[in-house]
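Q: I'm teaching a short session on how sequence maps to structure, and I want students to see two examples side by side rather than one. Could you give me a first protein with its sequence written out and its structure tokens following it? Keep the formatting plain so it prints cleanly on a handout.
A: Of course. Example one:
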Amino acid sequence: MAEDSDAERTEPASPRRLEKAREDGDVPRSREIATFTVLMTAGACLWAFGGMLVGRLGATLQSGLTLDREQVYNPNVLLERIFNDVVNVMLACLPIAGAIMLVALASPLLIGGWLFSTKAFTPNFMKLNPMKGIGNMFSTNSLIELLKAIAKTLVVGAVAWVVIMGQKEAMLGLAVEPLNAGSAHAGAMIAKAFLVIVGALGVIALIDGPYQLWHYHDKMKMTRQEVIQESKESDGNPQIKGKIRQMQREMARGRMMQNVPTADVIVTNPTHYAVALKYADGQRGAPRVVAKGIDEIAAKIRELGAEHKVALLEAPALARALYKHTDIDEEIPEKLYSAVAEVLAYVYQLRAYKKGEGEYPDRPNKLAVPPEMDPLNPASQQKPDTNNGVLQ
């Protein structure tokens, strides 16, 4: 990332960008936290197992310096003795070494988590670019790392100086103490100095951890153009998606129009709304809406209905209510059962009349449409749908 483009990066990194960076082996890391945890573990292990370690190493040293006649004149016995001593030293150091290894492996969980990326092993010849290397040397990040190293040196040096000078008299007194007492006293002073210095590193680690997280997420920020481009790549170009939705609407409209000739009746507004209903004799459930539309779609439905001799009935309130509250291939609402029943009764009587089996029926004028079902009635709190009759 170019330093001069940082001012333009104002958008937080997207999950996709963070995942890609992780795949490339780029995650937040804090060497100060790792150093502190390992050193603190080593100090705690020395404090807990130091006596045992000194005892076993002392015994091994004494055994190694003790030679008998057989060992001098038999090389095989001497080699076996050396091998046993080496094994004893390794076993003595094993608890401390194992604990340090486990903590070193677990410390990445504190920030960044475990990560194994093969891309980190892939040769990148761009890193051999001398101009880029010089630019990195004088970058803001390099300056911050330099200041951090200087601060760490000063803090650790100052703490070490205070600890050493505080024990100056005790250190000089070690020369006149007995061997065992002096050794124990010296070990206690070393442990105290170690813990105080490591504690100073802990303060640095507490500051460096949040800083590394902030720096990483700041480095991962994106420009608005990158966000738009990523959105296009992941979700598709908005123009293409709009074209697809238009094609889907046209296909849905075509399937809807195929159902119009099978309808029993088309309820109209008379010009703005048109809803085609179908109820097959013996079917379970209520009548269904097989097509609906407003304006141009409504006109097309009426045209197809007239072409296939489907009954048309002008009932503005019922047409609006059916259009608003029922989708394609859904049963009509229960509150409209009574009104639709009157319409179907009129249609069936009209069919019988055309067959010469009855009188011409009276056209229903006052259909029982609840006021709250009519979108244009003040009792209704919902606005009419204006999606041009296309499937939602």
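Q: Perfect. Now a second example for contrast.
A: Example two:
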Amino acid sequence: MGNHIYKLIELTGSSTTSIEDAIQNALTRAARTVRHLRWFQVVETRGTIEDGRVGYWQVTIKVGFTLEE
């Protein structure tokens, strides 16, 4: 295994269900157009409030992917 060089992008996913779903939604969408996704880091978690309850979870993540040779 050689040395890898990673590029970072920042994404914000949302979900009405959970933080985990918000992360998965962001990763699933990114995987459609970005190859070689390798890892993610949660940067920020927030949400909207609707009628005193969580309306949407919003999670900002940094996603690392390897550059092609």
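Q: What should students look for in example two?
A: Point them to this: The CA atoms of residues 60 and 68 lie 25 Å apart. Also worth mentioning: The radius of gyration is 14 Å.
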